[in-house]
Please model this.
Amino acid sequence: MGRIETRLGELGIVLPKPMDLGPLPFELVRIHGDRAILSGHLPLDAEGALAQPLGKVGAEVSAEQGYQAARLVGCALLASLKQALGDLDRVAGWVRLFGMVNAAPGFNRLPAVVNGCSELILEVFGPEVGAHARSAVGLAELPFGAPVELEGEALIRP
Amino acid sequence: MGRIETRLGELGIVLPKPMDLGPLPFELVRIHGDRAILSGHLPLDAEGALAQPLGKVGAEVSAEQGYQAARLVGCALLASLKQALGDLDRVAGWVRLFGMVNAAPGFNRLPAVVNGCSELILEVFGPEVGAHARSAVGLAELPFGAPVELEGEALIRP
Amino acid sequence: MGRIETRLGELGIVLPKPMDLGPLPFELVRIHGDRAILSGHLPLDAEGALAQPLGKVGAEVSAEQGYQAARLVGCALLASLKQALGDLDRVAGWVRLFGMVNAAPGFNRLPAVVNGCSELILEVFGPEVGAHARSAVGLAELPFGAPVELEGEALIRP
Model:
């Protein structure tokens, strides 16, 4: 078992099945050379379906639930990367996370929500490999009413 | 005539003139090495002006009209790439599309709208070169009331 | 004194202290090889705190104030790059700016706001190095009510 898989086990993290929302005209992970570009991912349940709760953070979804949803998005990103790479130990470094919160009017504590994903990546990969640039912003709508979505980029070993 | 130009002809696709919204303090396509970074593009008419209809998808603009607008954005991206590269056959692969829908409150079928661009790219470039990572999200406002905007990145041959 | 520092002096631009919003689970600039990925930056005052005014452009914040805020974001990006690189002369070229405006309902003159950052980058780095791809879009909410946020990417010399 790989180093990152071992680390996930230590943290008690079970990855979901990769996002399965039917046939898609794009790839969850697009690999070119040493770059893995990650499509926008939503919070998933264990089966790879959209996790509950849905709705806007600051209204139907609390900030704490939003944080947990962002953490689930992080798990979904890892599940897609694992499927694309075979082995998460091939992740050489994180580059960028773009965190999008389905924000209720007036809810602007967006970084606190997106931290759910950033902190997961740092816990799993450590402060060097896991370090990344990031934005955390409030969108008007997200697909299917998901509370959080993230896209990003990682560097990989061949 | 190049392979992609021939393919556009087979599909009956006529590219617009490149986006012409007056002098801009940025480039429609920024090339560094083998990367072509595409600025946010709007749906264009044949002359390179903003296409009708304008407005929010889910309100003034229907989901189907939004799909067609996203397809027009795809044509605008190709027009800019052709101008920058000289020959669309120099596109070696698509990397990323970031699809932004001017979403009416409560309209969250954003992927169905952005599919208009993704499917165009796949029709024109085929499933290998055309494959890309993607996000489809709902913005509060887009320039000049455009219903859809996309930015992205492609890989090119020197 | 480096070339870009000299140029900043000629333009009368004093960079703020790098953004200081407390400990962050991400980096303001993430460097991999010749790429410097810039996290989402907000307008800063001289001390690196969030600049006034806050609020939505088109409501509490005028378009002209939004332009000035975008210019301050440009200064914040340069301050972070300087801290990360030691010397701004190491910037070999700009790649991408993604400009996000905290847009009041109906305010869609977003490019005019984001021009504040694009024009600063062109003034400081000139038309060749400073050229970049760009999007200018309207977000529903930005962190702490900031009127503008930008993320981006630059190329650097080793």
In short: Chain C touches chain A through 25 residues (CB under 8 Å). The beta strands of chain C are 29-32, 35-41, 91-102, 133-139, 148-156. The first helix of chain C runs from residue 3 to 10. The mean pLDDT of chain C is 97.
